[in-house]
Specification:
Number of helices: 7
Helix content: 25-40%
Largest sheet: 5 strands, antiparallel
Distance between the termini: 62 Å
Shape: globular
Strand content: 15-25%
Number of domains: 2
Structural class: alpha+beta
């Protein structure tokens, strides 16, 4: 019996030691992951602040453009790639006329009938009334289809919410997402800062016309007619895309900010998303 008791005690001590070792490894791993996540967040924050400062740069030749033109700077030994996209260059899901949505959907390959039907459903999602477009969908249609979702019957809160709209597919969404926003608050887009995907949705914009428009921007100063001094930035929203390598992997973040007229807090963070 004493021998059995000793062996049992040794086994118990071994199990305890193994448990402590495992817990220690887990704790170390969690701490390391937390430190890496914190370092990544700090780098993205630095990029966002650098981009906002570049928008307010008083010297026109050094001011960063807000049409998605790539920029880069060094931070803590890393090369950070950054681009700024003015949300005024995108189609606002909550403000755009249905015709603009139809043109956007047709620009990615949908025929007129399919584009109109899907645009009807997009507009019905954001419309507060119970009235339905000819090919649209309201609560009863979502229930009949067995959908787990119901239309918001109010403004889109994010572009990603578009994935919940009936008949929207991930493939269509992937193609039109770069052209869309919920932050501009304007019915029309500014073609001077519009990405290629948004330009494609404009009437009479051929591939050659789009290529010419994008090429012409390279010769425009950052303080062109879209940027008339920094005071005009107040209230404007911008997506700041950040890319850098961390621990053998590429980090990509999209942050949306709205510029204020408060020098103590020059911008509000509206969205923060890793890709």
């Amino acid at each position: 019996m004493p021998v059995i008791a000793v062996m049992w005690g040794l086994g118990l001590l071994a199990a305890i030691a193994l448990s402590l070792s495992w817990n220690g490894n887990v704790t170390y791993g969690m701490a390391r992951n937390s430190l890496e996540a914190a370092a990544i967040n700090v780098t993205v924050e630095a990029a966002v602040n650098r981009a906002v400062a570049a928008l307010f740069e008083p010297r026109p030749e050094l001011r960063w453009k807000a049409d998605g033109t790539p920029q880069s700077f060094a931070f803590e030994g890393k090369r950070i790639n950054v681009s700024i996209q003015d949300e005024l260059g995108k189609i606002d899901l909550n403000q755009a006329e249905e015709s603009a949505l139809i043109n956007l959907l047709k620009s990615v390959g949908l025929d007129s009938t399919s584009a109109t039907a899907l645009a009807d459903k997009i507009v019905d999602w954001r419309t507060t009334t119970s009235l339905k477009h000819l090919n649209g969908a309201k609560n009863s249609e979502y229930r009949a289809s067995g959908s787990a979702f119901q239309p918001r019957n109010g403004p889109f809160q994010s572009v990603d919410e578009l994935l919940l709209v009936m008949d929207m597919t991930p493939e269509i969404f992937r193609q039109i997402e770069p052209a869309l926003t919920v932050y501009s608050g304007h019915q029309f887009i500014d073609p001077q800062v519009a990405p290629r995907e948004a330009l494609q949705a404009l009437p009479s914009m051929t591939p050659d016309a789009i290529a010419a428009a994008l090429a012409a921007r390279q010769n425009l100063p950052a303080d062109g007619s879209t940027f008339i001094g920094t005071a005009s930035l107040s209230g404007r929203a911008f997506t700041i895309h950040t890319e850098f390598r961390e621990a053998n992997r590429m980090i990509r973040n999209d942050s949306v900010v709205r510029i204020t007229d408060d020098p103590k807090q020059p911008f509000w963070l509206l969205s923060w998303k890793y890709r």
